[in-house]
Amino acid sequence: MAGHGTSNYQPKNKVVRWVDSRLPIFSLMNEQAIVFPTPKNLNYLWTFGAILSFMLATMMISGIVLAMHYAANTELAFDRVEHIMRDVNFGWLIRYIHAVGASMFFFAVYMHIARGLYYGSYKAPREILWMLGVVILILMMATGFMGYVLPWGQMSFWGATVITNLFSAIPLVGPSIVEWLWGGFAVDNATLNRFFSLHYLLPFVIAGVVVLHIWALHEVGNNNPTGVSVKSSKDTVPFHPYLTMKDFFALVCFMVLYAYFVFYIPNYLGHPDNYIEADPLVTPAHIVPEWYLLPFYAMLRAIPSKLGGVVVMFSSLLILFVVPWLDTSKVRSAKYRPMFKIAFWVFVISCIALGWLGSQPAEGVYVMLARFFTFYYFAFFLILMPLLGIIETPKPVPNSIAESVLARHHGSTATVGSGEGRPDAAPAAPKKD
């Protein structure tokens, strides 16, 4: 699947052939991006990988341009953002591309993760691929949080104050961590400088991990909606033009949504208090992070203990690393797991509900609901995943990807595979007419 072995690619252009004989970069591109064998039944949920690559490049380019006009100084930061918006040629567009892009980036990554959970893309042999994806998510969250501080509005300042203070709950080393993050004894100029430096640096780290993520993907190959491993060339098609055109169409559709937010409602997903300059003496009525961090913020506030809330919030991310070993089912795809499918969609509803609850005051019924959905979040991974793999009876799994495609095309029902979707499942015997 990974395309190991000697390449038969022979460039026609003399210059390209000369370069490729000394540095086989064109052969590598042909092998990994043109003829790379890809399951023929991939749906549009698999296009979010290309969308995320596009968004990472967009965020890095727009961020570099913005950094040319920004000043990481508490006396200047707020005014410099206004300068970008009003005085820099197309500065308003670049800033909105970057600000809205953060939301679009997280929307795409959450869809990418949900697809992986639904279709079992974390199962062997893709454990390292999955864990690298979790690392990317955590780095994105850190980068997004630090970027939220840079405009130095009210929500920027108080969000930084509240979130960084959480580390003080860690026994022994907590206060030292907070002091290091602040660069002093309060959120001030040193804090803004540190956050700007890290916000600028981390996207390059993310890009490096993305390279590893893609490398791991090309070693083990794509998963697919059936969860059945590739068994022959009949199960695959070349990446180009079949998948490149699919990715391109999905990217165009995604960019229409992206452009709608940028040009018509650029501040819809932001908070109006961030257009008020940071004031340490005036506390906003309700301090909230950006929407993509709200589910974790709701978990934090659902626990009455400060240390307990911090542990739960970070555990909600760290638990994703061990998902490949928590799921005991031999069937990858939820398409053939009726009980798991129900549990998964309740999990999605819980995540959405936690996002809404994170935007509400931490009082009364909101706290009780946050506790309930937080419990289900962890129960999905720690109880339902191991248990359903034992008690659930899966639906019949096709013997091969080609069989599932033909069955769907002819409207017939797929038959049970010899290994119920395992990577070592034997190919089906050819049928006689």
UniProtKB/TrEMBL annotation:
Residues 412-433 are annotated as: Disordered. Residues 229-399 form the Cytochrome b/b6 C-terminal region profile domain. It is found in: Membrane. Residues 15-226 form the Cytochrome b/b6 N-terminal region profile domain. A ubiquinone binds at H218. It holds the Pfam family Cytochrom_B_C. Binds 2 heme groups non-covalently. Residues 424-433 have a biased composition (Low complexity). Its cofactor is heme b; heme. Its main location: membrane. InterPro entries: Cyt_b/b6_C (IPR005798), Cyt_b/b6_C_sf (IPR036150), Cyt_b/b6_N (IPR005797), Cytb/b6-like_sf (IPR027387), Cytochrome_b (IPR030689), Cytochrome_b_C_euk/bac (IPR048260), Cytochrome_b_N_euk/bac (IPR048259), Di-haem_cyt_TM (IPR016174). GO terms for biological process: respiratory electron transport chain. The chain crosses the membrane at residues 44-72, 93-113, 128-150, 157-178, 198-217, 248-265, 307-326, 338-357, 369-391. It comes from the Bacteria. Heme b b562 binds at H98, H199. GO terms for cellular component: respiratory chain complex III. It is a multi-pass membrane protein. Keywords: Electron transport, Heme, Iron, Membrane, Metal-binding, Respiratory chain, Transmembrane, Transmembrane helix, Transport. One of its GO terms (molecular function) is oxidoreductase activity. Heme b b566 binds at H112, H213. The main subunits of complex b-c1 are: cytochrome b, cytochrome c1 and the Rieske protein. Component of the ubiquinol-cytochrome c reductase complex (complex III or cytochrome b-c1 complex), which is a respiratory chain that generates an electrochemical potential coupled to ATP synthesis. PANTHER family: CYTOCHROME B. Belongs to the cytochrome b family. This is Cytochrome b.
